[in-house]
Design goal:
A: about 160 residues; alpha+beta; Alpha-Beta Plaits; 4 helices; 5 strands; about 20% helix; about 20% strand; B: about 350 residues; mainly alpha
Amino acid sequence: MKREIKGMLTGLGVTFKTMMKPAVTVQYPHEREAPAPRARGVIALKEENCTVCMLCARSCPDWCIYIEGHKEQRPPRREGGRPRSVSLLDRFDIDYALCMYCGICVEVCPFDALFWSPEFEYSETRIAQLLHDKHKLGEWMETVPEPEPLEQGAEVKGKK
Amino acid sequence: MAIDIGWGTTLAIKTVIVLGIVPLTALILGYTFLLKMMSHMQSRLGPMDPGGFHGWYQLIGDGLKFLQKEDIMPDHADRRVFALAPAIVVLSTFLVFVVIPAGPRIRVASLDSRGLFDGVGVFYALAVSSLSVVGVLMAGWASSNKYALLGALRAAAQLIAYELPLVLAVVGVVIQAGTMSLQGIISFQQHGSLFGWSGIGFPLILTQFVGFALFMVAAQAELTQPPFDMPVAESELVAGYMVEYTGFRFLFFFIGEFGTAFAFAALAATLFLGGWSVPWVHGTAADVLGPFVLFAKVMLVAFLMFWARFTYPRFREDQLQAIAWKWLIPIALGNILLTGLLKVAF
């Protein structure tokens, strides 16, 4: 009996102590917490790196990337050479209503044209406005943070 | 400075006051303890946005929301009984408020020196608070819902079982104060003295601490609050006997629950802590200060009640009944015996 009574009083003490401690709630939207630099907020597109290889569109589990492109000729690098063809983007849309933020597209892009940005406040009142086109994805590039320094002894993979 | 108002106007004013104060106290208690204190005990903040300052408007908004809901009644429900049940529960709350004094001359009805009922405030308050049992049973039966009925039966059994410790706990107070009138008990505490020192009067909690503990436990059970909330076991019976109630009928139950919590806390504050009285304040100053002092004491007692509420898990029905019949009542009887002996001896 004594143990039970002691337990009951300890319980009261726990709730009282918890009540006196301030709550750690961050009252969004009055207060904001900055997410970590590697947080997955939105995907940004660096158009100059994209070669329209379609790997991202093909690997997206949700098929939320829509790509259209065309080929153009560029002058040869040396005299007498063959004109080089480059692929240019006509349309690169990501439908954020479908996107599940898995990051496969960013991971699989061989030319580092897609980047994660921690920006997350882009809710819309109409679902159609969640389809971000090429221009808007290019704007998100400004919010992409500098890559974090690698740890000691990490393997350096490639240039940005 | 007596203004001559006819009894009709007085009655009307008193009715308005009681009708206004009960939901108001229910709101204040509900907000402070249910929304804010409970939240902080759970490491969260509770409502912060409604009304701007720490969400004080939340319950009022809730009340308004309930008022505009559709009035749904189950097909096979007994219509009149279904509608009357919450009214009876709230009625018993109002009736308890009628007799609690908030100052030497501030009370709605005095029940002192009225011939036959000379000074029976305590008796009346305890008797009338038991009316809610009838309301609960009506609600459970009229809902035409097996689980509501189960909840109502559990509730009735629990409420009846804990009436006894509640009343017996108060008997000790009555024996020591020598009167059943609430004003008399308060004046006993105000003008009393401890070993000759009348600094804080003689709050009866000092000698009747067993009675106080019994009263708190029994009040907790009377209000079907955890750990005695089997009838309203939210995870099992949803809302027990209230499950078929929506809209303003549910609001009535809610107001009844928190209004009764305030009423019992006020009774405890009056019987054990001295009610509206502060020992060195008399006369008109007491009239002005009284309600605030009473309010402060009620909040203190309510804090204890709600603290226990948010800390403990639920008792099983058989454990609940065992506590009442096998523990509380014998302890209460022992307390009465002891108090009586000591009163006669000294």
